[in-house]
Amino acid sequence: MEIILKEDIIGLGYKNDIVTVKNGYGRNYLIPTGKGVIASESAKKVLAENLKQQAHKLAAQKAAAEEKAAKFEGVALVIPAKVSATGQLYGSVNAAKVAEALAEKGIEVDRKIITMRDIKHVGDFEAVVHFHKEVEVKVPVTVVAENEPVAAPAEAAEEAPVVEEATVEEPEVEAPAEEEAPAEA
Q1: What is the rounded distance in angstroms from the CA atom of residue 115 to the CA atom of residue 101?
Q2: Residue 152: is its pLDDT beyond 60?
Q3: Where are the domains of the chain?
Q4: Which of 76, 109, 116, 145 is the Cys-Cys partner for 127 at CB 3.0 to 4.6 Å?
Q5: pTM of the entire structure?
Q6: How far is it, in rounded angstroms, from Cα 159 to Cα 149?
Q7: What 8-state DSSP symbol labels residue 111?
């Protein structure tokens, strides 16, 4: 059954696309919910006329999507997760967690436009963000164990000896003071 989509449905198609679906899916879900109409000859002619009239609006939408996609240049996500001894994750990393990680970097994205498989183990993966029919951005996602050291703790390790030296000096000063205190009492 051919259906003209009235809104974007990730995994199926975008608004105004003509897609072929199984009869039951079209008849029982897409058409009753208003997400699609049957692609008859007259409906196809109406769609073609509407697309001609809306060409400039569609170009503006694509330009806006390309602007959003430009924000993703050089963005790579590192997501820490709890890992078992065998390397399996407790739970999984999914589109919602990727959207949260992007929000932490200051990029607001709806989790519904992100497609990826659920990640169940540590490694490098890829998430795809669909902004427009012709504009998609691939974001590299690296899942690491929570307790594994990352590049940032290496800088903290250089500062750590300075802190340790300061703590070593304090007990030496306090030790004689404690010895004198019981002698006075």
Answers
A1: 15
A2: no
A3: 2-53, 70-145
A4: 116
A5: 0.58
A6: 15
A7: G
